[in-house]
Amino acid sequence: FPYTTLFRSNTLAGSRDYPEKRLIFVTEPSDEERKMAQKSSVKLEIQPVALDGFVFITHKDNPVESLTVEQIQDIYSGNITNWKEVGGLDEEILPFQRERNSGSQTAMEQLVMKDKTLMQPVNEYHEVEGMGELIERVGDYQNRMNSIGYTYLYYVNNLYKSEEIKILKVNDIYPDNEHLKDKSYPFTTAYYEVKTPHTSEKLSALYDYLLTDEGQKIIELAGYCPVKED
């Protein structure tokens, strides 16, 4: 669900035409979305319920296995343009991006680039809508080993599996649950549950329940990494 679900529900609180859509599960809100909430006079209550890895993917035949944080930043700021600069073949890097305010684009801007300037997509070919499309485009045989893109570990492992792509290590660290829990994987992130003061009592109970031991076990069974320690 988009954050605008909560913005609208605040405006329509009590409306029979908009029943109880006041609890959502999403990635971290972008600065623009937070400003939209303020503008709409919506108070957001946000807490993390699961950990995930923000990961970089490339074609399975690409000989590069790991990139540093700085190399990724340089690729996506346009300073590194060829795979040979990071230990790969003499091939142009085709860096895919997601659309503005998508969860992965927000993570790219806030978690990865931080104070670095994210370059504009080179052309329309490099900006894709939808996580599935991005994974398919990176794994497309026509791109061969040139492509790089980003997504979430959960999507790659559970929703959009592809035998044509591989996950790159970052600083030689793979984003498995062990490295997510101890935060040694540099791009460890989270999924959040978000509510407003207008969220119903039942949904507020669910909001609290998911951080109990039982709730965290359900999170793990669903394929996510629990946010609480065992």
List key phrases describing it.
two-stranded parallel sheet; seven-stranded mixed sheet; 33% helix; single chain; 230 residues; alpha/beta
Strand content: 15-25%
Average residue pLDDT: 83
Helix percentage range: 25-40%
Number of helices: 9
Order of helices and strands: HEHEEHEEHEHEHEEHEHHE
Query: Main sheet, how many strands, which sense, barrel?
Result: 7 strands, mixed
Based on Cα principal axes, name the global outline.
Answer: globular
Which residue ranges are poorly predicted, with pLDDT under 50 across at least 5 consecutive positions? 8-19
Taking Cα atoms only, what radius of gyration do you get, to the nearest Å?
A: 19 Å
The end-to-end span amounts to 29 Å
Decide which structural class fits the backbone. alpha/beta
Total count of strands: 11
Give structural notes.
- The chain has 230 residues and is of the alpha/beta class.
- It has helices spanning 4-11, 31-39, 69-77, 103-113, 131-139, 153-159, 177-181, 201-209, 213-221, and strands spanning 23-26, 45-59, 66-67, 94-95, 97-98, 127-128, 147-152, 165-167, 169-170, 188-195, 225-226.
- Strands 1, 2, 4, 7, 8, 10 and 11 form a 7-stranded mixed beta sheet that branches. A two-stranded parallel ribbon has the order 3-9. A two-stranded parallel ribbon has the order 5-6.
- It is globular, with a radius of gyration of 19 Å.
- Mean pLDDT is 83; it is low at 8-19.
